[in-house]
Automatic annotation (TrEMBL):
InterPro entries according to UniProt: Alpha/beta_knot_MTases (IPR029028), rRNA_MeTrfase_TrmH (IPR004441), SpoU_MeTrfase (IPR001537), tRNA_m1G_MTases_N (IPR029026)
Organism annotation: Leeuwenhoekiella polynyae
Protein name (record): SpoU rRNA methylase family protein
Swiss-Prot/TrEMBL GO biological process terms: methylation; RNA processing
Pfam families: SpoU_methylase
Amino acid sequence: MNRKLKNSELDRKTVEEFKEAKKTPIIVVLDNIRSLNNIGSVFRTADAFLVEAVYLCGICAQPPHKDITKTALGATETVAWRYFESTLEAVEDLKQKGFKVAAIEQAEHAIMLNDFEIESDQKIAVIFGNEVKGVKQHVIDVSDCVLEIPQIGSKHSFNIAVSAGIVLWDCYLKIIKNNY
């Protein structure tokens, strides 16, 4: 029989241990996300994969905010974050720091996520767009590539928090495979 583990048995990092730990070389960029619950969920997922940082851009609310905190469950205290008035500023910052910038969107010539390769020691930034309009075209234009999550059902998109979970898990696995 499988016994459900108690939180105390999970051997998770403390806030201090998280801050000192070697991070996964991924930065999440949120391009004008309007739902504070989605922002909080992305922080929580970023914490799970030891993501380097979350960049909040445009209309994204910033911690501390009760609706972000409700879904982040403390991840705003562990995951580093920065705010940029425009996503283009964030992309410029990332490129100066040597990150490969990938917009997560459905676009011509997009690379299917399962076909995307991450080179050894490569730093990656993934941009998730607004819940209704997606990643803005001018942001796609300055991105190094566009990644698309394969879908075979009748709906044309995932919720932003679900997309982040899928993409971060995929990138995390590829980075771990390359570097360990």
